[in-house]
Every structure is written in structure tokens, then in C-alpha cells.
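QA checklist item 7 of 12: single-chain prediction sanity check.
[x] sequence parsed
[x] length recorded as 155
[x] structure emitted
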Amino acid sequence: GDVFAAFSDRPEVLAVLEEPAFAAVFGPGSRAEVSLLGQLGEGGDAPIVSGQIDRLCVLDDKVLIVDYKTNRPPPDKIADVPGSYIGQLAAYRALLQKIYQGKEVHCALLWTWDCRLMPLPQEVLDHAYVHSLVGSNAENQACKVSVYPYVAMTG
């Protein structure tokens, strides 16, 4: 069912559903609660990420990801968004870039308190990926995804 059907009479819900940049995320062919598992980076010590994407849509030229957040009240500016949220989407984006090579992957947070969509700039996600997920302090990052050190399984 449509996650927003019960609230479709609220103007802020309609604004989210009609946001041109992410309209496809809530349209036909989009998927909810998509599980994701993969390795960030290359090599035996690259961390493995496990998570769940709230909304995903794969189009001809791009991939759209939306993650719901329930902060009350939510931040107004990207600079005030918790780093763990940005790191979470940076990890998802990195994995989907490997799967959908040649397509741009765009991410946004959907603040449920005020039904507001906040697209995240690519450079913000790039910074989070380099400095929080694969950098020297990657083992200390606090993303809301499970990040594991790579462990080779031997039989």
C-alpha cells in the first residue's frame, strides 16, 4: 500500500509526493524496504555493509534513494543533519554505484514529522564516504547500517 495514503489530505504530504526530483520514488515501479549487503571499497580489509533502504527507484539514467527519519523536530539545514544519517546514505549510495554502474545515485532524507524531503548534495555524500566510511576512522563511524570488518570464510 501507499505509505502516505492515510495522510494524503495534508499539504506537506502532497508536497513530498509531488517533489519533481523524487516523484518516481513514490510512483509505480518503486520499491519499499530493500535489503542491501555489500563491501565498501576493494581488498580483504574493506568493510562490509548491511542495511535496508526505505524507498528505492531505478530509472533509465539514475537511481533514487529515500530514507525516512523521525526526528522531532527535524533539522532545517543539511549542516545540522546527524553525520550518521549522511554516512548511512553514503554507504548505500556507494554500494548501489557498484551495482548500477553508469547511473547517478541520488539520496534524500524524508523527515516524517513535517513530511519534508531533503535531497543530499553529492559532495556531502562524497565527503561522508571518504571521511567516515573508508577513512582511517571507519571502524569508529556511527552509521545506522551495520558495518563489519571483512572476514574471509575458509572451509
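[x] summary fact logged: The chain has a mean pLDDT of 80.
[ ] second reviewer sign-off
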